[in-house]
Design brief:
Elements: E1 8-13, H1 17-28, E2 34-39, E3 44-46, H2 51-55, E4 65-67, H3 68-75, E5 78-80, E6 84-88, E7 93-96, E8 101-103, E9 106-109, E10 113-115, H4 123-126, E11 128-129, H5 133-140, E12 148-151, H6 155-168, E13 172-176, H7 187-199, E14 203-206, E15 210-215, E16 221-225, E17 230-233, E18 235-238, E19 242-244, H8 246-249, E20 261-263, E21 275-277, E22 282-284, H9 294-313, E23 329-332, E24 338-342, E25 345-349, H10 350-364
Parallel strand pairs: 1-2, 1-9, 2-5, 9-21, 11-18, 12-13, 12-18, 13-14, 20-22
Antiparallel strand pairs: 3-4, 6-7, 7-8, 10-19, 15-16, 16-17, 23-24, 24-25
Helix pairs in contact: 1-3, 1-9
């Protein structure tokens, strides 16, 4: 440790769900002898659960933006807004985006994941990646007239297609590598999604992959599919499955087979004690199934809070995180209704949107919000 005195430094890399909840906890119970530093890319963190609703016109942008400077002040933390360009686990230091080096005693990584698109020609130039969320929100609020194409028909892709189509009223299509929309859900939920998408006139091209995005004709672009078929689009949203955040590849800590930070069920690195990971960037080596979804990240927070404190004080035994066996998936359909799925059950209706809205608003009520877009 290179900083002076007996104060220990906790560095939080990224303002994901678990770190937001950790900071909210610190605002209520601030520890002594600990300097907390939050590293973010900018002054706001967008809540993914309300993104589609915002794009459908249900919420103003400010409603889903956590005010990080205000949250950091309440928690007694320092906010570094230049982001991180490197993590050196063995040296216990973070290289900030502006080139400065930040040493730590304990660190937690909650930087999320990145969209899987690097191997597809044309994506960087012609598609709107779902992450980072701030960029997606800015670009999709100015949706171009003309056909909409969403690549990836998991929960995020289906919800985006429904909400954007409801607002823009443009021809909309989904491309999904798997056999149907919502391939990760039950057969009943898949049948429900197929009915809703068909009713809304949204075409689903299942069992297909995008080989390239290319310039098209008449002011449009086109997606060339693996089958050779082409689909025209004015806007293409890339909502495929996640891949590890680039920060992890060279951090020096053990990674799992997919490239995520390898952690025990305590959320602590398997190779570097005092380094934790939560949310999408954590890879559990115990074999327990932890989907990369916000509801799981939220439930990791109490374990992370306890175990980070235990490492800082050296006085408590680390707790283990146990993922729940399932969760209620709620997808905003953009028309005043939502789709819901829980294990083998699935339904749609206005009451489900009211439930989703209540859950999302309750989560955001824990944090200060930005007052403008």
């Amino acid at each position: 440790m290179r900083h002076t005195g007996e104060v220990k430094r906790l560095v939080l890399l990224g303002p994901g769900h678990p770190h937001l909840l950790l900071l909210a906890h610190l605002a209520r119970a601030r520890p002594s002898g600990v300097e907390v530093v939050l590293v973010s890319q900018g002054p706001a963190q967008l809540y993914s659960g309300m993104l589609s609703g915002c794009l459908a016109g249900m919420y103003p942008p400010a409603a889903l933006q956590v005010d990080l400077p205000a949250l950091a002040r309440a928690a007694g933390a320092r906010l570094e807004q230049s982001g991180a360009q490197g993590l050196e686990a063995s040296a216990r230091r973070v290289r900030l985006g502006d080139g400065r080096v930040l040493d730590y005693d304990v660190a937690s990584v909650d930087v999320g994941s990145a969209p899987a698109h690097d191997e597809v020609p044309g994506v960087h130039a012609l598609a709107v990646p779902l992450k980072p969320l701030a960029g997606a929100l800015t670009r999709l609020r100015r949706l171009s007239a003309g056909p909409l194409l969403v690549v990836g028909a998991g929960a995020a892709g289906v919800e985006l297609a429904l909400c954007l189509q409801a607002r823009a009223q443009v021809p909309t299509a989904l491309v999904e590598r798997g056999p149907c929309a919502l391939p990760e859900q039950s057969a009943r939920a898949q049948r429900l999604a197929a009915r809703v998408l068909a009713r809304r006139g949204i075409a689903v091209h299942a069992g297909e992959s995008v080989a390239a995005l290319e310039p098209g004709e008449e002011g449009l672009q086109r997606a060339r599919l693996g089958s050779g078929r082409t689909l025209p689009f004015a806007t293409c949203v890339w909502a495929t499955g996640p891949r590890p955040h680039p920060l992890l590849a060279s951090c020096g800590a053990a990674l799992d087979a997919q490239g995520y930070l390898a952690v025990h069920d305590t959320l602590e690195s398997t190779s570097h004690p005092g380094l934790f990971a939560a949310g999408d960037c954590a890879g559990f080596v115990s074999g327990q199934h932890v989907p990369r979804a916000g509801v799981y990240a939220v439930r990791e927070a109490p374990v992370l809070i306890h175990n980070v404190s235990a490492r800082l004080t050296g006085t408590e035994v680390l707790r283990r995180y146990r993922a729940q066996s399932g969760y209620l998936a709620l997808l905003n359909a953009g028309d005043g209704t939502a789709l819901g799925a829980w294990r083998g059950w699935a339904a749609e209706g206005r009451v489900l949107l009211r439930l989703k809205d209540r859950i999302d608003r309750r989560f955001m009520a824990r944090f200060p919000r930005r007052s403008s877009d």
